[in-house]
Each structure stands twice: as structure tokens, then as C-alpha cells.
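Thread title: Can someone regenerate the structure for this chain?

I was given the following input by a collaborator and told the matching C-alpha cells would be attached. They weren't. Posting the sequence so someone can regenerate them.
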Amino acid sequence: MKNIMWFSEIRKANLPEVGGKGANLGEMASVELPVPTGFVVTSGAYFLFIKHNKIDLVIKEMTEDLDEENTDQLTRASEMVKSRILGGEIPQQLRQEILDSYKNLQTGREPYVAVRSSATAEDLPEASFAGQQSTFLNIRGAESCVQAVKECWASLFEPRSIYYRTTSRSGWPQWCR
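Best answer:
Regenerated them for you:
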């Protein structure tokens, strides 16, 4: 599985790797609609990061017996998982792939980019998670892009996102763990 996929190589069949926004951008690019050049950091890259830092164990521990109606417990779970993600180390190869991909966007100067979630389970028949994660606009610089990716991953675990997932009929999608 690839860690980075460019819009030009993405199709609807790549939905599990790139999520709905990523797949739609790929489809639009394939029919030559005016889509800016861009790339997706895949779900495989997210899982690699989570496993590399053993954050999957923290997520399980913090959500296993979570009472989502207990605001203090919900906030504590969110803060713990987010701090582990933000403090986690992106594996060197993945980090370099993100840096190189950002640098490939350059056309003489560092571009401003948007880093946003395209979670693979944002829009399910039984629940919509759209709008639950943060979007980072006007990100400039390769290192800033890497940091924004981590911040976007951390936003998967905002208290409202955890609450919504635990109280919706869909529960915790596999992409969270």
C-alpha cells in the first residue's frame, strides 16, 4: 500500500486508502476538471504512524470503557490520544515522502496548501462524520505540512468526534484504531 497518492492516480476504487474527498478529487482530476495538483496521505500511512508509536493501544485503553456522557472522562480520553499523536514520531520514510511530495508541488516558490481530513468513514449510510475533523489552511513550508498532517490526525480524536462515534450506530470505525 502506498503512503502518498497523487490526485492524478486516484480513482473511486481507492476510497479505502484515500477517503471520500480524496477519491472525489482523483475522479475530478481524471476527467480534467480544474483541480489543483495535490496528494493524499493515505490511511495506510496513518495506520503506520499509529502502530509505530503504539497509539493503537492508547486509543483502545482510553475508549474501551468510556462513558461518553461523562464530560471529564471524554475530555481526558481526547487529550491523552491527541497528545500521543502530536508527540508521536512519523517514521522517517513516511516523513520524507510527505516532505518530498510537498516539495514537488513547488513551482518556483513554496506553495500554500490546505491539509484536511478525508477519513475513510466520514460519510457512511448510518452516520456522517463530515465536518468533525479540523482543516488547516494556508500551510506553507514542507515541515509545516508534516506538522499539519499530525494535527489533522489528532483532530480525529476531538471530544465531539469521540462522542459522535461512540453514540452513533456505527461506533468506532476500524480507521480509528
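The first helix runs from residue 15 to 30.
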